[in-house]
What we know:
single chain
Amino acid sequence: MDDPFELLGIEPVFELDPSTLQAQFLSASARCHPDRFTDPLEQADAADRMSRVTQAYRQLSDPESRAHALLALRGDSADTEGEATKALPPDLLMEMMEVREALDDAIALGDQPSIEKHRDWAQQKQADYLTSIGKLFEEPPSEQNSAAIRLELNALRYMVRMLEQMPA
């Protein structure tokens, strides 16, 4: 698998400036765009490179995917099976059950202010987890550090899914 940071010529850090990321993507895309080549073999090779550059951009555009890419660069496969990779912060499941129950009640009643209150809560929690993940990536790599990052990523995933499932 390609290193998405290397493909786009970006330093492997969690905190990325979106405009820098986009500029590097556009630059890499321009260099390997198939229309720049006339030979069919070169076009096919360029199309493959373009596909990998696009995939790298998508991966680095999403903070969760970017975190997994950084963990992989550290030699820590976040996709491994096991309880440690599925761990959650203490009390998160109980908190989520309470919030979801209140949200379901608000949705059933058509209580838009309460729905918005829950959306704001989830967005703030999402921002808090992203901030925490960014700070953890600033620390020296270690098994404990990787486990802490995975814990925060698992919690982040809960917030992302909750927001995706909320009514517009």
